[in-house]
Design a protein that fits this description.
The protein is about 30% helix and about 20% strand. It is of the alpha+beta class. The two termini are about 15 Å apart.
């Protein structure tokens, strides 16, 4: 078992494009569907696995380009430390004063460490100034507990 780190920061309106954050349905729409439905399905089917946008379901980071992996660790402590470093880096930009509170990052890191140690995933999101959005994820791999059929990005 190991853990992959992912980070996305960008415009909130881009993050809100939920169709590109969901995997395509396994069955395409029927041929008699409206043309816009068929075109939208094709767009999502083509773009989902290539898009840098955070997936709605954390495990689906594993099907994204391997270039998006920010780090990989067999040890949950090291993965949680990466998370702590990112929280410290971005905390001054958090839109919510509660998210910037002094003890908040340490509590999130401790929770992440515990979750990773049991094979779970961690996904955190924060509104930043401008408006922008930050998505941080640590995904347990080989196999992933919620989606064991998803491949490791480094096995492909």
């Amino acid at each position: 078992m190991h853990h992959h780190a992912y980070l996305w920061a960008g415009p909130k309106d881009r993050f809100d494009q939920e169709a590109l954050r969901r995997p395509p349905h396994p069955d395409p729409p029927p041929a008699e569907s409206k043309p816009e439905v068929i075109l939208r399905y094709r767009e999502v089917a083509t773009e989902f696995s290539k898009s840098e946008l955070p997936p709605i379901e954390t495990a689906y980071w594993l099907v994204k380009p391997r270039s998006l992996v920010r780090g990989t660790w067999p040890d949950p402590d090291a993965a949680a430390a990466w998370l702590g470093d990112r929280l410290t880096e971005y905390a001054p930009r958090f839109a919510s004063p509660a998210q910037r509170a002094a003890g908040r990052p340490a509590a999130l890191v401790a929770s992440a460490r515990e979750r990773l140690a049991t094979g779970g995933d961690v996904s955190l999101g924060f509104y930043l100034e401008r408006p922008a959005y930050l998505s941080l994820a640590l995904v347990t791999c080989s196999p992933n507990r919620t989606s064991p059929g998803l491949p490791c990005p480094f096995d492909a």
